[in-house]
Amino acid sequence: MTGPDAQANVFAMRMWKSLLATQELLSAYLGVRLGLYDVLAAAEKPLAAAEVAARAGVAVRYAREWLEQQAVASILTVDDVRAQPDQRRYALPEAHAEVLTISDSPASMASLAVLPLGGIAAALPALLSAYRSGDGVPDSVFGLDWREGHSGANRSLFTHQLAGWIKDSMPDVHEQLSGPGRRIADVACGAGWSSIALALAYPQAQVNGLDFDAEAIADARRNASQAGVQDRVHFEARDAAGPALAGEYDLVCLFDALHEISHPVAVLRACRALRSPQGTVLVMDAKVATAFTAPGDDVERFQYCTSVLHCLPAALVGGDSTGTGTVLRPQLVRTLAKDAGFSGMTILPATDGFHRLYRLAG
Question: Are 231 and 218 within 8 A, CB to CB?
Answer without folding.
Answer: no
